[in-house]
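Write out this protein's structure.
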Amino acid sequence: MKIARSPTSACFLLALSGLIQACSTATAGSAPPNAGTDARASVSSQSRSVSASATPVIDVVELTVRDIQTAYAAGEFTAVELTTAFLDRIDRYEDHYNALISMNPDALAIAAALDEEYASTGPRGPLHGVPVVIKDNLDYGGLVTTAGFAGFSEATGGIDMVPQDDAVVVARLREAGAIVLGKTNLPDFAQDGTRTRSSVAGVTLNPYNTDRAPGGSSGGTATAVNASFAVLGLGTETGGSIQNPAAAQALVGIKPTFGLVPLHGVVPIDATYLDVVGPLARTVYDAASTLDVIAGPTVEDLATYASVGHIPEGGYTALLNDSALEGKRFGLVGLGWRDDWLPLAPETEAAYQRAIATLTDQGAVVIDDPFLNSGFVELYETRPRVPSVGAYSMLVYLQGLGDQAPFHSVAEWEALTLEEFPRGRARRAPTRPSATEEGDAFQAWRLEIRELYRAVFEIFDLDGLFFPQASAPIRDLVEDPTRPEYSPNNHPELPSNIVNALGLPVVTVPFAYYDDGTPFVLAFIGDTWTEAELLAYAYDFEEATKARIPPGLVPRPTQ
């Protein structure tokens, strides 16, 4: 069963304690704007009726994994009580910020089962009873996956795309004891790196400043985590879609090395060269805890066997410490990295200089523009076109939906809907990229530029790069397309496209706030498979600054 929500229509099936309540399906264009909130309120009211007298008051704002595990051990609250508290917060604020596409109708039942398990055998795993969200291009068996696209949702005039099984990363979350509260908004097929507007659920807002973009394409996850609708969440990235919303919303985001985290069950853009799944969290520890759960090889995604030998034996959290920056050497951003996005905006430059001072106060050494005169910019500009893999990646995904899915190819979807699939490249012949000279050329260039990247690291004895994640404050939510400087693809994010092309890991960490209330965020960048080191650096920096400030939420203004 599912709870689906859209701006135009909704149908909700709520299951709790063996009771089923159904609400009627609205006709297209007639659903009230708060349909999702009304359903959420119904779930909350049912949960309160079960244990109203015994339910403790739980402040979920900025609650962490450690906080939750400590509270469970002390018997301060149960998973059902905690889940109810998060659902109540969603009930109050989601209608304004619009982070979620759908809710999991089984969340409270799962929480109850976890409580029983905790009482009998102890915690299932490191995320036992932790409420989380997942981006709606990740499969949760039995619930609709929309990828933001109205054509994959019956509620918005399409056909429900219901996978039979969980994505591997979702299965791993659940095996670790996490409670998936719902699925978050994303632009259709994750095609925007700055804003999050879907044909299924509309526009997601940034809780820090609703006039500013929330980041994309994992903006729904970022808003849900930033607003404390969940403790943490999963996003995906092809060209900045974890980093950018993390920077827009003062979150710790991990863009992992390509191949570290499985992609099976993830609606793809480019699952052959670029796509990754990673956590968005409010603390480095929570992000590292999540990476510990989702990383590693699986037969369902053979690319992940490249990670063998590269995952720390004790896990990523075990290596976090508050002296990791001592004596480490970091390269600073400069013209040698990307000359067409510099200089930084004045307010960004000022914040960056303060961050550098903090880094050196922690005992680190900085090297100004180590890529200058290395030929890095020139080699990057010769990059061949990334091979067209949309049709291949999408066919592989659709074939994995399971026997009960209504379609298993783009052609079958078109035959059922009598519509043309919107992504033209996904309608091409699904040629495997490794069979093409285009694919060979890209791989050869990627190897060459990685070798140059590593050579610069070796020459300057670098442990990583320390960059501002964006060259300017976050852009407006709504921009004027008549302005000369406007371009839908002109994003100010500094590292994202380059690190995606090279398949490098990035960890973001917040540092300061601009006058408009939006954050300034740093990016630690390393070589492939250096997530453990980057997380340790970010943890030390976070401990030294404690910079994150939660946003103040307000309910949806009345019209």
